[in-house]
TrEMBL record:
Keywords recorded for this protein, A-Z: Signal
Lineage top rank: taxon: Bacteria
Signal peptide coordinates: 1-21
Classification via InterPro entries: Glyco_hydro/deAcase_b/a-brl, NODB_dom, Polysacc_deacetylase_ArnD
Signal as UniProt keyword: yes
NodB homology domain mapped to chain residues: 36-253
UniProt GO molecular function: hydrolase activity, acting on carbon-nitrogen (but not peptide) bonds
GO terms, biological process: carbohydrate metabolic process
Name by which UniProt lists this protein: Polysaccharide deacetylase family protein
CDD domains per the UniProt record, alphabetical: CE4_GLA_like_6s
Amino acid sequence: MQTASKFILFTLLLLQTIYSAAQQKTTVSWPESKRMALSLSFDDGRMSQVDKGTALLDEYGVKATFYVVPSAVQQRLEGWKKAVASGHEIGNHSLNHPCTGNFAWSRQKALEEYSLEKMRSELIEANRMIKSLIGVTPAVFAYPCGQTFVGRGTQTKSYVPVIAELFSSGRLWLSEGPNEPLFCDMAQLTGMEMDGKNFDQIRPLLERARETGQWVVLAGHEMNDSGDQTTKLAMLRELIAYAQNPANGIWLAPVGTVSGYIQKTKGNK
């Protein structure tokens, strides 16, 4: 009888361990048995993105996510129309790129002076303008400067809920790690900087993410050979070649494509 009781107790403990592990599982079965996901994203609608960047991506058949400000799109309208036709994802990066007024260049559009209503109105207007300019309505968003607040002091509020309502995802900036696919908040996706880096600096990040099945969202600005806030074209070539090597098990896709896949997976579960 004592032996039987021990067996039953052991069985119950084993089942509890298995159940707890299943509850804590944050990995996902990626398409085609890939081991991780990678998204390339670029902010602001910089001119170099369509002057040089999209041509490189198209050469490799890679689709990226571009978070744009309408006024920037107007400066290279035909280039952005071509980017859309090539299948690149266009995201919303706000109407006026508001950040904290601690940045002198943002003093006249400081988040400290915004309300949730003003932010919502400008985001909707930005979507309307982007649709009018290049024929697509953005479904994804990136926080300017990676900042998610409006107001100041006791009146400070997060506008993350506004993003969650209006968009399928919101990407941060200067994050310290990748996204856990079945745990992450789609309205607060981590975005890791690739500006100014060489491939040897990025490769270890991809290797660690591959071991745990994570989703890396890389974020950049200019797409050129050199300069400030620039994702170097030579680095991109190395990165893409690495990601497209089947041996490395990387699913390379736009932010909206990956987030949609994860949401569908969650729904099926």
